[in-house]
Amino acid sequence: MEALKTTFPGPEAPEKMSILAIDDETSIRKLLNFTLKEEFQVIEKRNGMEAMIWLEDGNVPDLIVTDIEMPEMNGYTLVEILRNSGFYKEIPIIMLSAREKSEERIKCLELGADDYMIKPFNPHELKLRIARLMEHIKRYKYHA
């Protein structure tokens, strides 16, 4: 006879931190989702405009990964709006781009991005960069 298994309610599992992944290329969004879904809740949007609509509906991710070149609203404009907003300005942002020039990286950092990665990117490196930023978030929330 098989032993009865009894489950007792325990402490709730902590909710996964969320990442808003914004890119007009479906393959990049899917790669981001596949790479990050075990540790994070990944929300996918195709451009900055879709992302802003999602944010304005009251959603707030823990981190944003966004492309630069997108239709409707590019990554530069999105970062500028977020950094000038009282509500979203503290959300860490990682920019993804095929643009390799130093001037592009500098522009993104000056606009307020926290990090910049060149496409194609190494998924493991992205996870490490995200983990570093998320650790800063946890420390900030703990000390706040």
From TrEMBL:
Keywords: Phosphoprotein. Residues 18-134 form the Response regulatory domain. Pfam families: Response_reg. The modification 4-aspartylphosphate is found at residue 67. One of its GO terms (molecular function) is phosphorelay sensor kinase activity. InterPro entries: CheY-like_superfamily, Sig_transdc_resp-reg_receiver. This is Two-component system response regulator. The keyword Metal-binding does not apply. Coiled coil: none annotated. It comes from the Bacteria. Gene3D superfamilies: 3.40.50.2300. PANTHER family: HYBRID SIGNAL TRANSDUCTION HISTIDINE KINASE C, TWO-COMPONENT HISTIDINE KINASE. It comes from Persicobacter diffluens.
